Amino acid sequence: MSTTTSTQVAPSTRRPLRYYQIGSHLFITVMLLLSLIPTYLLITWSFKNGLQYRWERWAISFPLRWSNYGAAWEIVGDYMINTIIVAFIGLMGMLLLSLIGGYVFARMDFPFRETLYYAIIALLMVPWVLSFIPAYMVYVRLGLLNTRLSLIIPELAGGPIFGIFLMRAFIAGIPEELFESARCDGAGVLDLIGRITLPLSLPGLATLAVLNFIGVWNSFLWPLVMIQDDAKQMIAVGLYKLARSATYGGVAGWTSQDFGVWGPLYAGYVIASLPLVLLFIVLGKFYVEGLVDSGIKV
C-alpha cells in the first residue's frame, strides 16, 4: 500500500508595499538623514585644525585633533560645572514640590481644592516675558543679583507649576485601594508619598526631570541678565560669549589665525551636549513612558 502526502504551503499574509508606503518610507529616510547632517558636521569639525577645516571641511580628516577637546574644556568646563550645580539643586527641589503638590491635589480633600488647582494651572498661560522685569527688580531688591540663588529660585518657584499638573494626573491614576490598605496598616501621609506614590510615579518624574534639565541647560536670557561674574555663568551664555570671541577677537590661548579657533569651538559644543545625551540615555525609557501615560491620563 502506498500513501501519498500532500504538503500545503500557507499563503503569505504579508502585503506588498504600496506606492504611497514606499514614498512615505523614502520621505522619512531623507528627513532622518537631513536631521543627522548637523550632528555629523559638528562632530567632524570638532576634530579639525585650521587647515583641515579650510580645505577638507566636509570629510573626516586625519589625524584627529583630540587636543581641541582639551582646549575647549579649559573654556567651557567652569560653565558646565555651574550649570550642573544649578540644574541639580533646582531639579531636586522641583521634583519634590511637584510630587507633594500632585499628591495633595489628587488624594487630599479640602475646601476650594479645584479652585486653587486651576488657579495654579492658570499661571501656565502667563507669558514669562511679562514677569521678566518685575522678577529682575525683586531679585535686585533682595540682593541676589550675580548669585546662583537668582538662577535656582526661579526653578523652585516656576517649575512645580507644570509639575503639579503632570503629577496630579499620574497620582490620580494610582488605585485608591493601595492607599486604603496602607492607611489600615497605620501609614501616614509621608509614608503614602514615599512608599506608594513615589515608586509608581517614576515615569512622570523622569519626564519632568528631562524637560526641566533641558530647560535649565538651554536657559540664556535670564542668566545673561542676572549673572555678571563670568565664573558663575551658565553654559548657554558661555558658549555664546565663546562664539563671539572666536569670531571677532580670538580666544586667549587659542590660535586665531587661519580658522584655528573653529575646531575647539565645535569641540566645546560637543562637550556641552554630552550631559543631555547621557541624561536621555539613562531616563529615555521612563521619559517616553511618562509622555504616553500622561497623555492617556490627562
From TrEMBL:
Keyword Transmembrane applies: yes
InterPro entries in alphabetical order: MetI-like (IPR000515), MetI-like_sf (IPR035906)
One Pfam family named in its UniProt record: BPD_transp_1
Transmembrane segments: 22-43, 79-104, 116-139, 151-171, 192-217, 266-288
Assigned keywords, A-Z: Cell membrane, Membrane, Transmembrane, Transmembrane helix, Transport
Domain ABC transmembrane type-1: from-to ranges: 80-283
GO cellular component labels: plasma membrane
Membrane topology: Multi-pass membrane protein
Main location: membrane
Keyword Transcription included in the entry's annotation: no
One GO process term, biological-process aspect: transmembrane transport
PROSITE patterns referenced in this protein's UniProt entry, alphabetically: ABC_TM1
Protein's cellular compartments: Cell membrane
PANTHER family to which the protein is assigned, alphabetical: ABC TRANSPORTER PERMEASE PROTEIN MG189-RELATED-RELATED (PTHR43744), SN-GLYCEROL-3-PHOSPHATE TRANSPORT SYSTEM PERMEASE PROTEIN UGPE (PTHR43744:SF8)
Family under the similarity heading: Belongs to the binding-protein-dependent transport system permease family.
Protein name: Carbohydrate ABC transporter permease
Organism: Caldilineaceae bacterium SB0664_bin_27
